[in-house]
Amino acid sequence: MEGATEQKQPLNHDDIAKVARELWQKEGCQNGRDLEYWLKAEQALLAASGNGRPGARARNARAKLNSSPKKA
What we know:
Layout: H1 13-26, H2 34-47, H3 54-67
């Protein structure tokens, strides 16, 4: 069907929270940056959403974040 778009699963709150917490821990548990970590987690999950399965999406996002260099 021409012009049809693939429907994607909505982001899961718990998956975003897990990835955001991992980011927070990876960057030294810096307080006051919760929104920044939340948005980064959402972006990572959206970038990893090619698989379409919410659980796989979170694993892919965490793997991607863990492979990126740590900020100084």
